[in-house]
């Protein structure tokens, strides 16, 4: 499952001297959600595919570089560029989804963290209240407006996910706007003022017309597409008949131990872990 590497230490500000750390800094450079790598595939050691000496290569001003942390003794930083022009032969822009199955989950998790920082920096150069150029706050991950005092932190959008169980069956759905046609658990973003549990009940009723109870927390996962936090649950069916909202759900049905299992999300996602842990027929369920 996608995760931040256990040997990663997050930092807000750069250490006193990055030269004390092993090797040159690892710089994650983004253009509109795509990561710059050397070569068309990152290979077995994806950190080696990050561009070397990026400040010189792309003429990056210092305020474009943002501290991410330390990984395997290497200082990590994030940056963003306006122009998608490549700095030379052998470089390419990669969406993080393209790295699934190629790079290890820890590297993708770290790259996702860096990408969210870079996108936050790109989209908060000016105050959203008075349009004054923003400046970095001291000692925290924030931009602060010197004119009106508004403070902008990185945006994180929480979303619920729930796998509904009915006896020895589970409910899987094909989402209308999904970029790939895979059945998965129900999911949706929280609305202002909601608890995560309230969002589960609302989304389930809106999307498939069912009511549930006995919510149980499963796990959570950062999902950097672009800035979600997925919070997964299981729940038991209470009442209702399946009635899909076609704007959200193309198809939803119950799958039991004797039913053919549909194409489901890849192992890097929390949805895959949730379905694998509660697949009908697994360990006698």
Total number of helical segments? 4
Oligomer: single chain
Question: Distance between the terminal alpha carbons, to the nearest Å?
Answer: 23 Å
- The level of helicity is 10-25%
Query: How many extended strands?
Result: 16
Shape category? globular
Mean pLDDT value: 91
Q: What structural class do you assign from the helix and strand content?
A: alpha+beta
Beta-strand fraction estimate: 25-35%
Radius of gyration, in Å, reads 22 Å
Would you list the SSEs in sequence order as H and E?
EEEHEEEHEEEEEEEHEEEH
Low-confidence stretches: none
How would you characterize this protein structure?
It is a single chain. By secondary structure, the chain is of the alpha+beta class. The protein has four helices and 16 strands. Strands 10, 11, 12, 13, 14, 15 and 16 form a seven-stranded mixed beta sheet that branches.
Please name the defining characteristics of this protein.
seven-stranded mixed β-sheet; 15% helix; 285 residues; globular; six-stranded mixed β-sheet; alpha+beta; 4 helices
Short description:
Helices cover 15% and strands 33% of the residues. By secondary structure, the protein is of the alpha+beta class.
Question: What is the strand and helix layout of this fold?
Answer:
Layout: E1 8-10, E2 26-31, E3 34-38, H1 54-58, E4 66-71, E5 74-80, E6 91-95, H2 105-122, E7 135-136, E8 143-144, E9 151-152, E10 157-166, E11 169-175, E12 183-184, E13 186-189, H3 196-208, E14 211-223, E15 228-239, E16 249-255, H4 270-277
Parallel strand pairs: 2-5, 10-15
Antiparallel strand pairs: 1-4, 2-3, 3-6, 4-5, 7-8, 8-9, 10-11, 10-13, 11-12, 11-16, 14-15
